[in-house]
Amino acid sequence: MSNQNQNPFKWRHFQADIILLCVRWYLRYSLSYRDLEEMMAERGLNVDHTTIYRWIQHYAPELERRCRLHVKFTTDSWRVDETYIKVKKEWVYLYRAVDSQGNTLDFWLSSIRDGNAAKHFFLKTLSAFHTTEPRVINVDKNAAYPKAFNDLKTVGKIPESCELRQVKYLNNLIEQDHRCIKRLTKPGMGFFSFETAWRTIQGFEVMNMLRKGQLQGVAKGDVGGQVALVAKLFGVAA
User: Which end of the chain is more exposed for a tag (fewer CB within 10 A), N or C?
Assistant: First the structure.
């Protein structure tokens, strides 16, 4: 195990619990980095907003990585869709999937929206630790999905018995779920690089999964349990 895994907060100027507090709040609520700077100032802590930005860039993907193996298994009915995120004043595509219960299956940020992007996302979702082999995949009328679906079925990546449905109303569930992620991206007024967006979105998504009760041992609405789990994953006393 690397030293970083043993102590992910080594050489940091602030205590681990303060860093995790800022990371959790930024990824969970619609806050800007300057909002958090002021909130920490109320606690008597002089934390610059650029420091909080660096914490998010470092710890958001790490939080997502540490949570992955603790996610509960999902159902075999998928809802797949993409939404738009602004990066450097340009729109990019956030591919997302939820199951029939509204639980997040997976997500992926892409600069393009075509058959190859859809195929990549299907493969990423199929290989996720917590996803169940799909019985049905619901998508919208985007022509890229049937092509990607058929290509992957031909090579045996998607089960022969799996059905693709292009019925828009069936995807209302995921369109509603998009709103949570879109709401979180607004305070930052867009991202300045693709890498910055992807690192941050990994954190937004995994905190959304935690909020929805998708991690083992923590029920939806159990805020204390959510705080304790994040602390435990990073080896910090809650």
Answer: N
26/85 same-domain check: no
Per the structure, the complete domain to which residue 137 belongs is given by: 77-180
Q: Let me know whether 30 and 81 are in one domain.
A: no
Residues 155 and 91 in one domain: yes
Do 237 and 139 contact (CB within 8 A), yes or no? Answer: no
Give the closest residue to 191 by CA, choosing from 112, 95, 106, 91: 91
**Are 133 and 225 in a shared domain?**
no
Task: Please state the pTM of the whole predicted model.
Answer: 0.92
Per-residue model confidence as pLDDT tens for the chain (238 residues): 344 456 777 666 778 999 999 999 999 999 999 999 999 999 999 999 999 999 999 999 999 999 999 999 999 999 999 999 999 989 999 999 999 999 999 999 999 999 999 999 999 999 999 999 999 999 998 999 999 999 999 999 999 999 999 987 878 899 999 999 999 988 766 799 999 999 999 999 999 999 999 999 999 999 999 999 999 999 987 6
